[in-house]
């Protein structure tokens, strides 16, 4: 499913047709997202629903809504982002470790598909608003995986076994997510074992499971697609028994979007310091974030259009434009000698990169967002100065 490398022909076309777009910018491909969803739904079959967590990439919310079964939002801002693009409330599951009392009241009145409950306090608050408004509200109980999210397993089971205490809540089932970038089959098996434990302790008292398996994607050149494909197959295999008893929604973010985006930045300076060669680019870590990357120690998939270049490869470090020694995109990579103005493409930036960067640091401009729609490059957000946000 996941393709860490884009075709050279496609990348050459993008570089050629984006010459007039000033770097740095992210480029997203809606068709790749659609293909990923289509492939995943075919692989899963009819027993599972697919939910897209828009925190992975909010720029895909409206197009993803056409192809996935549901969307997941984790803040009031994400809720507004979806609703203002015409996405129906009953297409959205509202999550988030903190929801204010006012937000819960508005959610009850808006009637989303499901509301994920993170604590006993949230449960009591939402029960109050549902009772006051007379609106039967569909909720899921989120079970903690050992961190600040969700409620303890025993608490959730107690609520499921005593649902009569909450007459205006329709407690549809449970919500579980235990982390991202999983690379081990054993992690999936441990998750399934917990879901089966809930089933055994709460016989017949819930109908749904929303599960975020957190399947990993190959981000760096020591990763292979095959090891992650194995995880997806193992996930489906492990869920077969539960899928015959429950309506299971699988929640994905990174898996659907990571390989749909690239980040393009330009070489603006070249230097040799203490015998080490550096390329300085006009982007940096304020935009570009890979999960697990620390000061460029891991090598992501990149493209520099070097196919027809005949110069000898040399070792370079690629650093960004921030005034901090942390702004290292790649600590060591062998490339042909480039020139000022040449562009470097960082692949697999479709998930989280756009929103996770420290965008306000040093008051650098926000990058453009470009959408590739059927071989047309459309700027959907122009670059914008961030300094007004850092001043009175």
Q: What coarse outline follows from CA principal-axis ratios? A: elongated
Distance between the termini: 48 Å
Total number of helices: 12
- The strand count comes to 17
Helix-strand topology string: HEHEHEHEHEHEHEHEHHEHEEEEEEHEE
SSE-based structural type: alpha/beta
Arithmetic mean pLDDT:
93
Unreliable residue stretches: none
Q: What Rg do the Cα atoms give?
A: 23 Å
Percent helix, as a range, is 25-40%
Query: What does the main sheet amount to?
Result: 9 strands, mixed
Proportion of β residues? 25-35%
Detailed description of the structure:
- It is a single chain.
- This protein has helices spanning 8-17, 30-44, 61-64, 76-83, 101-110, 120-133, 153-161, 185-201, 225-238, 240-243, 254-257, 353-356; strands at residues 25-29, 48-53, 70-73, 92-94, 114-117, 137-143, 169-177, 208-212, 247-252, 261-273, 276-281, 302-303, 314-319, 328-335, 343-347, 368-372, 377-381.
- The chain is an alpha/beta fold.
- The strands form two sheets. Strands 1, 10, 11, 12, 13, 14, 15, 16 and 17 form a nine-stranded mixed sheet that branches. The protein has an eight-stranded parallel beta barrel with strand order 2-3-4-5-6-7-8-9, surrounded by four helices.
- Helix 8 runs parallel beside helix 9.
- The longest helix has 17 residues, at 185-201.
- The protein is elongated.
Give the secondary structure arrangement, pairings included.
Elements: H1 8-17, E1 25-29, H2 30-44, E2 48-53, H3 61-64, E3 70-73, H4 76-83, E4 92-94, H5 101-110, E5 114-117, H6 120-133, E6 137-143, H7 153-161, E7 169-177, H8 185-201, E8 208-212, H9 225-238, H10 240-243, E9 247-252, H11 254-257, E10 261-273, E11 276-281, E12 302-303, E13 314-319, E14 328-335, E15 343-347, H12 353-356, E16 368-372, E17 377-381
Parallel strand pairs: 1-16, 2-3, 2-9, 3-4, 4-5, 5-6, 6-7, 7-8, 8-9, 11-13
Antiparallel strand pairs: 1-10, 10-11, 10-15, 12-15, 13-14, 16-17
Helix pairs in contact: 5-6, 8-9
């Amino acid at each position: 499913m996941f393709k860490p490398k884009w075709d050279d022909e496609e990348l050459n076309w993008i570089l050629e047709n984006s010459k007039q777009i000033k770097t740095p910018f992210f480029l997203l491909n809606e068709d790749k997202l659609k293909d990923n969803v289509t492939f995943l739904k075919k692989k899963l079959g009819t027993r599972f629903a697919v939910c897209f967590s828009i925190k992975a990439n909010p720029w895909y919310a409206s197009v993803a809504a056409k192809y996935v079964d549901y969307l997941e939002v984790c803040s009031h801002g994400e809720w507004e982002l979806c609703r203002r693009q015409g996405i129906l409330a009953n297409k959205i599951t509202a999550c988030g470790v903190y929801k204010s009392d006012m937000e819960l009241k508005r959610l009850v009145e808006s009637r989303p598909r499901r509301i994920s409950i993170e604590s006993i306090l949230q449960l009591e608050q939402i029960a109050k608003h549902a009772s006051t408004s007379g609106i039967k509200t569909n909720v899921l109980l989120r079970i903690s995986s050992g961190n600040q999210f969700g409620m303890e397993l025993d608490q959730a089971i107690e609520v499921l076994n005593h649902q009569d205490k909450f007459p205006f809540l329709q407690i549809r089932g449970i919500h579980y997510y235990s982390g991202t970038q999983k690379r081990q089959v054993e992690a999936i098996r441990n998750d399934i074992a917990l879901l089966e434990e809930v089933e055994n302790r709460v016989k017949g008292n819930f109908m749904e499971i929303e599960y975020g398996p957190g399947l990993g994607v190959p981000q760096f050149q020591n990763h292979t697609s095959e090891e992650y494909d194995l995880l997806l197959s193992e996930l489906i295999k492990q869920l077969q028994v539960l899928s015959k008893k429950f309506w299971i929604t699988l929640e994905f973010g990174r898996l659907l979007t990571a390989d749909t985006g690239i980040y393009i930045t330009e070489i603006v300076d070249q230097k040799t310091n203490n015998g080490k060669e550096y390329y300085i680019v006009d982007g940096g870590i304020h935009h570009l974030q890979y999960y697990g990357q620390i000061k460029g120690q891991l090598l992501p998939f990149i493209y520099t259009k070097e196919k027809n270049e005949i110069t000898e490869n040399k070792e370079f470090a690629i650093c960004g434009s921030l005034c901090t020694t942390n702004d290292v995109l790649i600590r060591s990579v062998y490339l042909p000698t480039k020139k000022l103005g040449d562009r470097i493409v960082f692949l697999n930036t479709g998930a989280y990169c756009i929103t996770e960067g420290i965008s306000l640091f040093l008051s650098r401009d926000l990058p453009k967002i470009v959408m590739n729609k059927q071989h047309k490059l459309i700027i959907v957000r122009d670059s914008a100065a961030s300094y007004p946000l850092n001043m009175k």
